[in-house]
Amino acid sequence: MTEQKPDGTPAESSPWAAGGSSGTGQPQPQPQPQPQAPTEQVLFGSAYTPPTGQQQPYPAAQSPYPQPQPGSQPRRSRGGVLAGVTVLALVVGGVAGAAGGYLVADSQSGSNGPSVNALDQAPPARQTAAAPSGTVEAAAEKVLPSVVQLQVQGRSSAGEGSGFVISSDGLIVTNNHVIAGAAQGGQIVAVFENGSTARATIVGRDPDSDVAVVKAQGVSGVAVAELGRSDDLRVGQSVVAIGSPFELSGTVTSGIVSALHRPTRAGGEQGEQRTVLDAIQTDAAINPGNSGGPLVDLQGRVIGINSAIYSPRTGDVAAGSVGIGFAIPIDQARRTADEIAKTGKATQTVLGVQVRDAAQGGASIDAVTQDGPAAKAGLQQGDVVTRLNDRRIDSSDALVAAVRAQAPGDTVKLVLGDGSRTVDVTLSGQPVEPN
Question: What domains appear along the chain, each with residue ranges and CATH number?
Answer without folding.
Answer: 145-216 (2.40.10.10), 226-345 (2.40.10.10), 348-432 (2.30.42.10)
